[in-house]
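Hi, here's the filled form for the chain we discussed.

Project: internal
Contact: R.S.
Residues: 684
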Amino acid sequence: MIDEYIKALRAGEKEYKARLAAGEYPYLPALDDICPDNDVLPQRNVGLQEIPVDLIAGTKTCARQNSFAPGFLPLLDTDTEFAAKWSNLYQAQLSEGFNSPIKAYEYLHKFYVQEGNKRVSVSRFLEMPTIMGDVIRILPAPEVMEENPVYSEFLDFYRVAPIYDIVCEEQGSYASIAELLGRSISADAEPWPDELVKELKSAYWRFCKVIKTLQGKIQGMALGDAFVVYLRIFTADVLEQPDKEVEKRLKKIKHELLLAHNKDNVALVESSDEAVNAGGLITKAEKLVAGPDSLLSKVLPAVSYSKKNPLKAAFIYDKMPDASNWFFDHEEGRHYLEQTYGGLVETARFVIDKAEEDTAEKFFASFDEAAEAAVKWGADVVFTPSVRQMDDTLRAAIKYSDVKFLNCSVNLAHHAVRTYFAKLYEAKFLAGLVAGAAAAADGSHRIGYRSGMPVYGTVACINAFAIGAAMTDPEVKIHLDWATKQDANWWWDMVNDGIHVVSAVDSLHNTDGSDAYGVCHVERCEPGKGNDLSGTCLITHLAAPVYKWGKLYEIIVRTIIEGTYSSSAVDKKDRATNYWWGMISGVVDIELSDAISPYTRRLVEILRRDIIGGNINPFDGELRSQEGVIRRAEDAPLTSMEVITMDWLNENVIGEIPKIDTLDDEAKATVKLSGVEKSKTGVK
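And the returned structure, exactly as it came back:
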């Protein structure tokens, strides 16, 4: 078997030279070098385990490291005792397999061999997936654990599902695997059934085998994180699928996997003109003269819509619009869309709810049922207005690839689903001007601010409001509260604290029946004389930021009708497409009450025109957070993505970004998908 050793030796020498040329260490790493105090750190006897060979990173001590290249291939000459023993082990493995396990130490999800380096070398040469080993885990020092939160999460995962093979690098991936399988990795979670652990391990092996065959390891992305994307889309029966089905599915979601780890993965389309006129396509006159064989015919929409053949737009809601300010506003947008196009567009809503016996409307038990019904109805495009629906929307978009699917969210990267959202922070800045003037007038210099949940874009709204308020009242403080915290009582907490100026619900229609919306002035009054729910508060409206979802839907549908939806200028193959429109596109505005002074109204109207004209941005100039200066006046402007992902609060805000475990269940589900990082991780 010396011939096989020679092949292994040549491969080892090649790697050795390549590492030297790259200025890298050309031998095996040693745990004693990586973690010199490993002998005094706490140790746990994991026992006999099937060790993934790919996770064996080096030796325990320095004694044998110079015998191998970093890939565990040999470097010693063929006439050495080492070569003879290696060859004997090679023959033994081919004939009967190794008769004893190696001994290895696991540190930070990598293995370092104490006994059995040559067996590992032979296994690596033979491309064996696993090797049996007696494993001792070395627990990292506390400061190292803090720097490696994903490993801490892996330990929680391993406690309930002892699988070394699944390696993730994104925080939250192990918890996502558990959640998608209807399980948990929490401290009080029971170990998973042995059968489930075996099925999960087998499914992961099939996934890795197929994905490596299709495209190799995804560059820069751990296969465990890619597996989470796969699970999220096909979770219902992913544990049972054969290789052929896995291959078919992976081909369908190739772009989703490539986008999942790309940090520049979201292409923001920030102008409605950019979307409608993408690629400078065609005028209406050109459409009329374009023949079937002309060049123009190749860029015209494949379907010609008319009143006899209208474009069909479906809206899927996960609750009744009358029970949600958010869905109510989108429902008004649906009606606006249908009315605007005068028969050229037909819409329908599909509501996921419990069906009542006395209602004529059909309800659906699940998103999948609603999506199937929408497609059967003939939907050309499907809108899902809640970020909570993104995973379901993605699954449906993969299944019904001929239908366009869009989800109302921002900064979520998917190729099959486009996203859309509004730059409400522009209107919030103007609302802050009004609120600051009111707080200065009553001498309190205090404003209560009710926010929903800490998702992308929300913190920008808070900060823009706070900056606007400070421009009309430099002494003002913004008292922040969150409506989705467990046992939230934001309204009465503010009123009982003596706050008279409040920024309430961002909707002109408050589904709880109260008149508390937008920026309002609040005074206690005699019972029964007020217009809040209790009848004990008199609410005077001052200003209201307004979402105009109907306008946004009108613009998106126009791109479909006119053929610019799939233009290469908008449809980025390597990035997700996210429509993010504001005042300039008519998607956001502000309504002003007659109760404000004419001078405040004039200031707001001047700045509104400047925002529409692109001459002013709330985040220009120096920015100061609760911790200090964020941006100096001479620094480059914040990028749009920096605005969307803000995780700091302006210096005049009293409050904090809440941890995810303080939120109600519905908010937790949303924040897991689209929360700013501090709320996702629980860091304040």
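Let me know if anything looks off before we file it.
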